[in-house]
Amino acid sequence: MLTLDLAIANQKYRISQLHCEQEGGVDQERMRQLFELGFIKGESVMLLRRTMPGSDPMVVRIGTSTFALRKAEARTVRVEKVSSQ
Known about the structure:
Blueprint: E1 2-3, E2 12-18, E3 21-22, E4 25-26, H1 28-37, E5 44-50, E6 58-62, E7 65-69, H2 71-74, E8 77-81
């Protein structure tokens, strides 16, 4: 399954799952933070650009809001490509 950190810029995706793990279980704090920003299953998301050097942070749009998201956080957001029709 594709994660947001590997997404193609300016391609529409839909969030399929948040997968926030830490040693010993689920990282509830990270899940809560992403949820509060609007990273919810079924929501549209787009990677706008990667910053240089190192591609961290990444600029993403979720709904009508734009955020800088660290690569480690983007790696926890599982997405599926939305076909353009």
